[in-house]
Amino acid sequence: MENHSFLSRICIGMIAIVLATSCSKDFLDTDPTDRVSETIAFSSIENANKALSGLYRTIYTQYTNQHRDGHTAMMINFDAMGEDYVRTAPGYVYHRESYRWLAHRNVSDVNVNGFAYYFYYIIISNANMIIEKIDGVEGGEQAKATIKGEALALRAWAYTYLVQLYGKRYDASIGENTQPGVPLVLTTDPAGQPRASVEAVYTQIVNDLDEAMALLAHGGSTAKTHLNLQSVKGIRARVALTMQDWPNAIKYAQEARANSSLMSHAQYLEGFSNISNPEWLWGVSIPIDQVTTYGSFFRYMSANFNSGFTRTNPKCMNSVLYAQIPETDIRKKLWWDGTDEDRPNFPGVLNGDGTPVANQTRAPYQHRKYLVQDPSNASGDVPLMRAAEMYLIEAEARAQSGDADAAEVLYELAVNRDPQYVMSTNTGQSLVNEIWVQRRVELWGEGFRFLDLKRTNSDLDRRNTNHKPDLANILYVPAGANEWQWLIPQAEINSNPAIGPENQNP
Fold it and tell me: Under CATH, to which class is 6-220+444-503 assigned?
């Protein structure tokens, strides 16, 4: 048997990303050894830049069906697996098996468990090709450094998800984290790789990000759709927080937000769909002509686009979390309190002319966080990183390390959202808990909750809330249970001689 893993045979889709052409439904069938496409992609700096832009497009591209809208689909799955995103009806199957905590433990599932594995390796494999080839392209050194830096950062970013999903959580208290992680694929060599340790994967992530920051220190894109020095530092801050590396979490969170500002209250209510918002550090911008007929983030998560999924199944906030938001906090206006007085602020899904659709489903605590700018189409920008997150990372890292300035950092964000907020007098775990509540409210619907629960070794607890037991299926999962690890897809075990049944998660 050849030592080729299944992921290595499907991931290097350079034909699909070269020259930023659109990805078709046969993307995953692209021949990874096509030398003509590789030659074209690296024949000039211009074409290499187009290939890099194509790689960014994979973040929101739809693969084969509407379950698989790149990372933007995974963001919904990650929140669906938490306790703060509440489905109101069975509705269509999309993200439902994640909400029920079934898809990630099904080795044959191809729409969530299998797709996550292969999608993030698509990013990695295409980044590997850019990293390997760009030095040999004729052109300016700074231009090549920028392309390579962004590719390294994208590879690291993809590995942060893979290792958090398929490996056990990183625990700094145990020393070296030798528990199985995911294969480290760092070249275009198609040979199958064994599962590297969680420690080894994080070491590679940090190395990639450090190299990326060095390469991007003197240049880089000014477009928020591309990674630059500031947003790469934001990824580095996330990684440090996950590794309980408090000093670096503080350092990089501060530096990531240094040139940004928090949004105004008016901007907070505009719908989280415009990348020009001053608080956004990184996001995807999906043009109208690239929105799929079915699927896309806003067809599932917007409060005003009239799709079957939004019209019959509004997404709500956990009722217990909602109750913890002060009335003077602008963020509370993003969820309906269920009263007739507040109902006009939540017209729900709209017709193309802006009038509310008749006979749509409504539910207390339904959101209006995500709004398409034109209700006649599902295009919009999706936030991948905001400055608010960096305040929360710094505050949490300071609180976890006993730094007395933690409450002051939290205050900077919280008073922006709530002018009546008073600086916290909490200390220790009580302050950490307060920061976590702020984080849950601030980042609702942005794809963080499952990862936050896992990294903090917290229970999933949906009990005594507005989750419907028959719909949610799972109301409680204790921290540290086997269910927190996603299973390695069976297709990878079947085809990769370096990973056998004995290497599967329990």
Answer: mainly alpha
pTM beyond 0.70: the answer is yes
Nearest to 68 by CA among 30, 111, 29: 111
- Residue 208: both structure tokens together: 């990639």
Helices marked H in 313-366: 319-323
Cα torsion 165, 170, 176, 181 to 10°: value is 0
Q: What is the DSSP letter of 302?
A: -
* Residue among 365, 382, 379 nearest 304 (CA): 379
Contact 75, 447 (CB under 8 A): yes
Which segments of 46-161 are extended strands (E)? 85-86
Q: pLDDT by residue (tens digit) across 81-105?
A: 999 999 999 988 999 999 999 999 9
Q: Which residues of 254-292 are buried (b: 16+ CB within 10 A; e: fewer)?
A: bbbbeebebbeeebbbebbbbbebebbbbbbbbeeeebe
- The pLDDT, as a whole number, for residue 27 is 27
**17: CB partners within 8 A, 6+ apart:** 23, 51, 54, 55, 57, 58, 126
What's the token pair of residue 231? 């947003």
Amino acid at 282: W
100 in Cβ contact with 474 (< 8 Å): yes
User: What would the two tokens of residue 42 be?
Assistant: 């690296």
